[in-house]
Amino acid sequence: MNEADPFGTVALRRAVIQAWEASPTRFREDANAEEDLRLGGYRDRLLVELAQNAADAAGSDGVLRVEYVDGELRVANTGAPLTSDGVAALASLRASAKREGTSVGRFGVGFAAVLAVTDEPSVVSTSGGVGFSASRTAEAVAELPGPAEELRQRAGSVPVLRLPWSVPGAPPDGFDTEVRLPLRADVDAAALLDAFIDQAPDLLLALPGLREVRIGERVWHREDRGADRIVVHGPLRSDRWLVHRSSGKLSEAALAGLGVEARHATEWRVCWAVPLDESGNPIPLAQDVLHAPTPTEERLSLPARLLASVPVEPDRRRVAATPASDAVLTFAAECYPALVCKLPAEQRSALVPLPGFPLSDVDDKLRQGVNDRLRVAAWLPGAVGDRVAPLEARVLDHVSPELVELLTDVVPGLLVADLSDARHRRALHAMEVRRLGAAELVEAVSGLRRPPEWWYRLYDALAPVERSDPDAREEFAALPVPLADGRTATGVRDVLLSHRDADLDPAALLSTLDISGLRIAHPDATHPLLERLGAHQAGPAELLDAPPLEEAVRSSVSDAREGVDVLPLAEAVLRLVAGAQPRDWVGALALPDAEGGFRRAGELLLPDAELLEVLDAESIGEDAPLAVLREEFAARWPRELLRSFGVLDTFAVHVEEDPTEPDEDFPDVRRWWAEQEALRGEQWPPGRFVGIRDLDLVADEAWPTAIRQLAANPETARALRDPDGYSAWWVARYALLAGRPPRAWRMPGAEELAGLYDVAPDVGLAPEHLRLAGVRSELHVVDPDDAVDLLDRLGDRERAVRAGTALRAHQALADAVASGVIDPAQIDPPETVRSVSGAVVSTGRAVVLDDPWMLGVLEAPLVVAGGSPEDFDAEALAELLDLPLASEENTHQVVGQGRTQQWHEVARVPAACELLAVAVPSGAVALHDELRVRTSSSEHRVHWWIDSTGAVHAERTPDGLGRALAWAAGAWTERFAFAALLADPEATTLLR
Q1: C-alpha distances in Å from residue 348, one per residue of 119, 284, 367
Q2: Rounded to an integer, what distance in angstroms lies between the CA atom of residue 319 and that of residue 872?
Q3: Could you identify which of 19, 249, 269, 467 might form a hypothetical disulfide with 309, taking C-beta atoms 3.0 to 4.6 angstroms apart as the criterion?
Q4: pLDDT one-digit tens code per residue, 744-760
């Protein structure tokens, strides 16, 4: 070595030339290797490679300056000057001067990147200068016989960096080394500098040995703010980074796959970095590349940049497939949670890799490793101030700090409320954090024992969730509810809400009672949410609608008999009903009676009840149907309130809507029901049943007073005015007026019933009262009892029944049979009957008149009739009385032929028909001077007759011809008018 050649370049050149001369193939190998580096491995990596060398030289606080001067790119740096070993490394392939493994470059080939822009690179340092030249190398090779031929075949292309020459020069002031690169004519200097400008900020992050980079007039410098904050200041902006660094030693197993020299580098280094905005918030990366520590071509999709000492291929573009690479990537994944934890708690989820397709094999390994580590590492902020691993964490579905506070000691691993926000949802899902929706919340609080105030706060915190999430309402319906009696109900539905601020809370009246199934919320837990979820306000009406209260009332009498004190229940229910409408079951409430026991309210009478005047004494007492309410108890409550419970003052009316069967609490109701069902058919059962209670308990002698009471009460009077109703039916049959039922009497003015029924006696009742009681005012048959009674009266020889009354009675009976009101098969036929003459005759001699002309051959005292043929069903009456019809009793034959004429030919017939506006009948009539009919026993003169063939016969008299004409014309009611007009066919006859 000498001053002219401080690095021994002559010896280096001689060794290389001798090798080439000895083996032209070696020349060819060197040329191809350098060409591969120039065209492939180190293409586009000029500044990166020079910066790495500068960082290695500086160690720390290095400065790198890039200038373009007189067609030459100059890159100066501070740090250790160039050495002989360094020059030897520059002039060799894959033989680096950096063996210890603490520097960035390891292969000694990075300098080949300069060949992308120049053929004449040189390096000047405070220790001397060295240069390389394509032209001078070509001249040297041309003198070698073997390599010269290779040179010719390669068209003059030579390995530039194999032959160094000592060159003069010194680095600029303040710098220790400068690389000088005369640019080839095809290189765009401006574009090259622009590319350097883009790379400068990242170099200061990747290379800790550099503190400053200058490119022309532009300057970038790194500011280290503590151990984990870096700011790279540039001419236009400052880039902020949060970093986490870690290092360690690789195991022998991990180093086994590396080359001999590479195995000396046993230390691994990792740096995770995430950019920050001016406020310090993370800016997750969408895509990046692995830095080793300068950029590779391994694409990554992690939110943070990874700078790691991963073994790479010789071209430094791809990660080497070695155990060492896998080990470093594993260490990197294990370090990732530490970077995450350096962020504020609410920002950490931003660094969770979200699901997606990996961008490379390295990306796939890193994503899997990072996610696996994040899932088990404790980095999520817990509600109690600790850190929680995602696999052990729980997060609410809705943002609610209040809810988190309440559930901190209930849900293990619960995270802070902020993490429930939608911006964290995807990240937490990727970490498999279990979310607590409405159903999970309900499950979490089920079985808890907490004060009512705690539950109120819980409901208050859940209220916004219920309003914003329609699905939550159904789940929240299963929430526990603390009850006023100290129990906790599972589920909100059917819970009754007490009033927190009420002076007299209705629920408080019941909360201390042992009513199974009655669920009244504790006042301090009552919240509007509960009502929206299906609970009901526990006002008087709502409490009365509670099935458990109804059940308690219905069983209160049996409870009292078993020794249970039911007075508190009675008082509570009385207070409730005082503020609401009574329910139909309150009559079952046990109240104290005068004998010291308890009875249903509906079985008690007020001590001064009006009803006591008329009831049979045996119906009141300990074992009787009714009892008297204890006097001192009755004095404490309003009379009307007690009456609303069914406590009796006067007769009470029971109403049942849409009944399907008779109510057995009413006497003889089945009989009434059956009669009405038979009468109404498909219109039965009725839409409403109305019945007056306790009619069967009235004393026999007290009925006049009872009827006055019934008439004075609008409800009972209304019930009695329904002629088809049960109450009117029963009173008419079973009440007693002078020892007989009301329907056995007639009203004083009902003359058409005279003879059949006696006038009702004077028992102090007004006519209206008599009518309400069922005293008859007209003739009608409504049931079999009516028919039997009427038949008995008609056949009673002691009764003077007028003929018209008898006719109307028989017609009513026939109508009842025809309409189905009575069934003759269910009634025993009478032994005696009333004839048209008013006589009472044995049924063995009587007949029922079915054809009016038969009267001419029958004895009137033996004929039973019910009116004109068109209004009277003779067959129905005959069936009821078990009598033959008159037309069936004998054979009849008209004596003589008579003279047959058409009706319109008979004198005065057309005129009579015209005056009465009746059509002249078609057909003929046989006229007789004297019409006679022969029976089996005798012969009778008659005025008119219809024989068995239907032929009409009549005497030549106005009476006979008038009846025959009326029958033939179908105008039987006009028979007397026809008789008069046939005698005198003038209009004046009708006017007399």
Answers
A1: 51, 11, 16
A2: 121
A3: 269
A4: 999 999 999 999 999 99
